[in-house]
């Protein structure tokens, strides 16, 4: 078993575009997809930000998961 995740903890996180052009046809659905994209990007940026505190991480995580859950 390879342990690639020990060398680079963020290696498994790839950019997700949330582009559902054929499925998300309403403006509200497009807004949710855009919010998901931006909140995921912000959350991934916080992992490498040295000035990030636990409260900032919790808020960003809560926002991202609340959008995923609906």
TrEMBL record:
Residue runs in coiled coils:
none
Query: Which InterPro entries has this protein been placed in?
Result: BRO1_sf (IPR038499), BROX (IPR038898)
Task: State the protein's name.
Answer: BROX protein
Query: What is the species listed in this Swiss-Prot or TrEMBL entry?
Result: Todus mexicanus
Identify the coding gene.
Answer: Brox
